[in-house]
TrEMBL record, chains A, B:
This is 3-methylmercaptopropionyl-CoA dehydrogenase. Its cofactor is FAD. Keywords: FAD, Flavoprotein, Oxidoreductase. Belongs to the acyl-CoA dehydrogenase family. Residues 161-269 form the Acyl-CoA oxidase/dehydrogenase middle domain. It comes from Yoonia litorea.
Length: 592, 592
């Protein structure tokens, strides 16, 4: 049986030592003192490890079952979902106007991590609802908000996002689902949507589907897509549930992982739908909440790696196998624990230094979202827009890689389902795919975000690194181990950007062939920046006489590892990028 | 439903254009002319795609079922296994003395690839039998060989390898299974073995278990381990089957993949066993066949990637999504096929250039095994001994990575089991673990093989690269795209070796902390060498007026991709290695 313990201290370190949340001039941040955030994270961690984590394997083993149009979630999910509702965990950052607690998004993110680590499939029911809430909150009419949001904030009603169709995923312009105006302000929606997470289940009274569809007679392609609310049960004016709508689950998909979440084919057969926002502006409505949704998926990536890492460490400390080549560490035992072996440590340090860097990167992203929204800060908005594909793409690629690496520590036991390590890898795999496959993230980054607002945001990012290095150059403890590697990696990244500028003009494929490498490069530079900052914060804490010296020293040592052993990847990515499109585009399609 | 077509032309290219097998001065190689090998590979490919491939998904879905001590293999496996026996596919490289066909191992390897690509789990029943055959053939008495081998060559009886116990995998010195001499030359074996592939099933009359156990009163640890034959049914002197032996399957493991193979817990309860070779020399007996077994696992790695790649290409050509940024390629259709997009090509070229390089590397390894065995060539033996951990470790890591990359091309469909891409990733995952987890391969390479025979073999490898570069320096077509990158990568590898020599003496952890990176580096250099040679061979074929110019030109273009885009990884690995053990060993175990 796998273990999970919420890394409260690490989360607190990022919130306070790194981001200094309570000192930020952002509405609501003044309440985020150490005691308050500690209480929230501790309690979230308790729910995660005691309620959600024990159901993780149950969800994987039982999966969701469709019988007579009704989806049965795994044993215990319903009760756990009730606890989440009662604990107010579904309402944390929601608008108080509709029953939310109005906490900053960064606080929501900090509390989400343990939930996602403990049971990713379970947490998606709430996560999708949050996404649907955000879309209605941003684009719905006041009437729609009053009607749907209070129940969605409490998760009495859950939500879904319906984009994909069998023949179109990324390219939503090919969409066929139709919306026919009924003259009374409503529409009849018909078509089939696939890969609908939490599409149907038995944990809520009602399900509010958000559906992209084309209004007949509208523009061709992506410009003719509108967003609709399609409730499973129509909602009467007094808020009571009315008749069953024309939407039904067609089947549940058999997936590689996240078995606890019901991934549905949804059939819409003249279902009543209500337009959200303007006609034909559906994509814009979806895009406004994309930063949050993609940040949430990036979090899934590293949160699964965190869980897998905790178990790998426990196994490495417990399992006796072989002897330390420099002398027995457990001379009275039959063998030394795995953790004495350098290659086991290499593997564990790869995981640890990634996960902690990823957490800092994600929380920083959440903080930028708060700054953008609550302070109407356009620079923060531009910066998080730039970072979003990196958070999503890099953290999910690496999250899967390290969940798999953790599995490797177990040897043969890692491959046996009973030990639970396979599930972390299988669950983490989806995060690389959904919410825009990672190749699309790379395209978004290089094809769109780099040049956004005249390249202003990427320049600001480089400036931020330069300033940090400059301000701390006199700090000998930081310089060699942190600032110098950061400077080198940042130079590689700038050189790649330069290559794109010089060669992408004459042939965009020269840039796009290197987009994936650029995304990874930038991920490394971001984590390098986070580590340099965290090292500085840890050093300051030690200088200030912090009592828990081991914690802060470990933080610095882990950062040193990242800078020494992970950051050099930027030179490889640059070398790949610099070869351009020639070898990538050389073959005729028939010769693959 | 996934597809599979044996890459006969690519296999023939490696056998003849690269390895020039029929011109080699090795007994049996004179028969390997193009027509003969083509007929064999074509036929193997036919069996693979028509018989084995359709059962791949069946095996994954149904798995093996244990009922009343009997294991039922998936529907169709038994009939397919009969076809394999009847076709003589189980006997190819076996000793004619015992009913084998006596073909070179490289031919066996070439025929195995399609079988493994088409159905890895199925092919393991034969693969394990081949391993047990080799152990008895190398170390058994003449009486044992006469008694067991003829039936194992035909797979009327299958074989297993019993090493792992619940508390010991890598560190077999901790073994508890006991062998008690009975005074009549036989032993009574008692203990529990786990992870026994093909441990029990319904496709053979008898199962010959090879079991490692400790003879009571023998030396402690690994030096007291002996190897025993423990047949499921005892074999009478006339060859007929006698009484059921005291060995029984305890349970079948639920695994991440290879569901079609029954992975058993085997309980030995005073089972009759017969010593193979000498007392306490069991490990040596196992080690002699390790090169072959590990090469076979390396083949599994790239063979799964090959299957996954074929499907990814088919999907990328078929699926319409988005438009080529340089202008529509399918202007009359609603969108262009995925394969127009640079990042999809980047992904596919990564896969293709790896798989084809890996095939060359593996076949070259098989050729070295033939040269070592059939010519008693100690240099070839030393070289394959050096290469074995690289073939196993690098090809299985990358095989899994690229099976996963192929899955990514499918977007959401890649995560749905129905499409078959998840299975390739899940099946490929085990190859990184069994037959010595890849961390152990890295340890074997750096801790043992580099220094073997005074470092003679690694020096010979470097010399081989140097000579090839020197001999072809005047070849302008090769120089820039192939020889220069190969030289740079080889220099990186030598620099890493130098670092180990200079720093490993004072602290072996300086070398062992870099062992995994070194294994990957060396894998890249080996594939770089293979590609340089293949490019040369392809150029020669074109110069000689080969009619299939597209095939050879594609080969060269694919090689160019590998040299430009994959080989630069060596510089990253070197940078990691050069940081030594400090950051790897910094933390106390309690601080992970």
């Amino acid at each position: 049986m796998p273990i999970y313990n919420a890394p409260t201290k690490d989360i607190q370190f990022v919130l306070h030592d790194l981001l200094k949340v309570s000192e930020q001039d952002i509405p609501g941040f003044e309440d985020l003192d150490r005691d308050f955030t500690n209480a929230v994270v501790e309690e979230a961690g308790k729910v995660a490890s005691e309620v959600l984590h024990p159901l993780n394997v149950v969800g994987d083993t039982e999966g969701c079952v469709l019988e007579n149009g009704v989806v049965r979630t795994p044993t215990g999910f319903k009760e756990a979902f009730e606890q989440m509702k009662e604990g107010g965990w579904t309402a944390m950052d929601c608008d108080p106007e509709y029953g939310g607690q109005g906490l900053p998004y960064v606080m929501h993110t900090a509390a989400q991590e343990p939930f996602v680590s403990a049971n990713m499939a379970f947490n998606m029911y709430q996560g999708l609802t949050h996404g649907a809430y955000s879309a209605i909150h941003a684009h719905g009419s006041e009437e729609q908000k009053q009607k749907y949001l209070p129940k969605m904030v409490t998760c009495e009603w859950t939500g879904t996002m319906n984009l994909t169709e069998p023949h179109c995923g990324t390219d939503l312009g090919l969409m066929r689902t139709k919306a026919v105006p009924q003259g009374d302000g409503s529409y009849k929606i018909s078509g089939q949507k696939i890969f609908i997470s939490a599409g149907e289940h038995d944990m809520a009274e009602n399900i509010i589907h958000l559906v992209l569809a084309k209004i007949q007679g509208g523009p061709e392609g992506i410009k003719g897509v509108s967003l609709f609310i399609v409730p499973k049960f129509l909602v009467n004016d007094d808020g009571s549930l009315g008749q069953r709508n024309g939407v039904a689950v067609g089947k549940i998909e058999e997936k590689m992982g996240i078995h606890g979440n019901s991934t549905c084919v949804m059939n819409y057969d003249e279902a009543v739908g209500y337009l959200v926002g303007e006609e034909h502006k559906g994509m814009r409505a979806m895009f406004t909440m994309m930063n949050e949704a993609r940040l949430g998926v990036g979090l899934q990536g590293y949160a699964q790696a965190e869980s897998a890492y905790q178990n790998a460490v426990a196994y490495a400390v417990d399992r006796l196998q072989g002897r330390d080549v420099t002398g027995a560490k457990n001379p009275d035992g039959p063998a030394d624990p795995l953790i004495v072996h350098p290659d086991i440590r290499r593997n564990l340090m790869d995981q640890k230094s990634f996960v902690e860097g990823a957490r800092a990167f994600t929380f920083w992203g959440a903080y930028l979202i708060d700054r953008a929204h609550k302070n109407n800060d356009a620079d923060a908005d531009g910066l998080i827009s730039l970072m979003t594909p990196v958070i999503k793409g890099f953290l999910t690629d690496k999250g899967f890689e390290y969940a798999t690496a953790a599995q490797q520590v177990y040897g043969g036991h890692g491959y046996i389902e009973e030990w639970g390590m396979s599930q972390y890898a299988r669950d983490a795999r989806i995060a690389m795919i959904y919410e825009g496959a990672n190749g699309i993230q790379a395209l978004d980054l290089v094809g769109r975000k780099l040049a956004q607002d005249g390249g202003k945001h990427v320049m600001a990012f480089f400036e931020m690194i330069k300033t940090f290095i400059k301000e701390n150059e006199g700090n000998e403890a930081l310089k060699k181990d942190f600032l110098d590697p950061l400077k080198a990696a940042s130079k590689d990244l700038q050189a790649a950007g330069m290559y794109f500028m010089q060669n992408g003009m004459k042939n965009p494929n020269n840039a796009l062939s290197g987009s994936y490498d650029f995304m990874h490069m930038m991920g490394h530079v971001c984590l390098g920046l986070m580590w340099a900052r965290m090292a500085k914060a840890a050093m300051e804490a030690l200088e200030a006489g912090a009592s828990d010296t081991a914690f802060y020293e470990t933080k610095i040592a882990t950062g040193r590892y990242y800078m020494a052993r992970q950051l050099p990847a930027t030179s490889m990515h640059l070398a790949r990028i610099n070869t351009g499109a020639d070898t990538v585009m050389a073959l005729e399609a028939a010769n693959f």
